Amino acid sequence: MFKSYRRSAARLAAAGVTAGLLATGAIAGAGSAFADGGTPSSSGATATLEGLQGDLSDTATVADGGGASHNVAAGLFKMDVTGGGSILTYCIDFNNHTQRNATYQEVPWSATSLYGPGKDKDNAGKITWILQHSFPQVSDLGALAKAAHSDTLTQKTAAAGTQVAIWRYSDGVDVKAADPAAEQLAEYLYNTATVLAEPAPSLTLTPAAVSGKSGDRLGPVTVHTNAASAQPVLAAGAPGVKLVDAQGKPVTTAKDGTKLYFDVPAGTADGSTTVTVTATTPVPIGRAFTGTGDNGKPSQTQILAGSDSTPVTAGATVSWAKKGPIPALSAMVVCAKNGVDVTASNQGDENFTFQLEGKSYTVAPGKSQTITVPVKEDQKYRIDIALPNGKVKTFEGTLDCKTATPGPTPSTNQPAPATSGGTGGNGNLAETGSSNATPMIAGIAIALVVVGGGAAFFFRRKKSSTTAE
User: Per residue, what are the HEC states of 138-150?
Assistant: First the structure.
């Protein structure tokens, strides 16, 4: 059983530059202004890294391929969830650093190194099997030792053995647990694991942006959650717009599969608004988390091993206009493509034309188009979309799709504990990162939703050229 750690004060969620994942937004008609005052929200759980837990980790030995070896700490990390509660995670990005107090976001496997170019996607499913059949999900260490045919296991050695088995699948590392029982557990887990499906998100909405003509019932936006119930709330600032079901009845609660519609009265001024859905639920075991430190660099990717019942949030946008193009834009990291998919849909009655990466694209009414923008690994990216109303929409983030490779000094390139509150990791590992959590990006003046953790989404005035400088 997962041991619960709680804090009374919630940490601030970073809405901006975390590992760039998905940002969505919607515009009204091409001649209309963007809606002001949009509030970013995250899809699923957001958490702040506390660090590798000294009482839940032990030593492992890594061969460097040249006949030498070095020790690393292997075990469980703890993160404090925004809004309360905590989660325990294992590392799935062996050679990358952790960034102290990095902000992490629950994400799909497709946005992590598990689905990076050339990766065997079945390995992610095997890691999930390991998580479900080992510590801390299996709290009976005697039964776990019996299954592994090992000597006595402690929480420290069980965590170390589990992490070693995970590294062999996530990174292909030549690593062994120092403790014989932990190594036997690692062997058992690695050799027995079978492929499981990706766990469902704790809470997300699809699609994350819809649009249409005023006077219509727009949507639907579908709720996906493992929570028994969730609470949808329509943002203020859109008089007359109502959140309803397919029959037009008001909606105040939701569950998995609930379809949300937006009733926009005829004659409503062109504009947009957001719906935010919240719930409290454990995050499913095997969900991935990507993070970014306050230096803008990726922090070591993690995978969920244990969860409290924690607050989760998701959001979507809706825009409307009386006539003309009525587009919705979104961008999502797709690690298999090593880039960002930008999708534009148009529910208006005229073509929507925009400029992206120096090229012009036109989306006909009722259609959508997705363009993949290649992005360099571990680099901040900025994707500008020049719109016909003289504005520019920008998607920003940091791509972290490939498993890091060892550097020239292995001892400073291994997972580094970010200790806190008296707990700590192995002292022979370097500390990395800084002491401040990623700040929330301020001054966002557009109705938007940040879904899947990551990209800052904002607009600015376009200069004389059709593309952003």
Answer: CCCHHHHHHHHCC
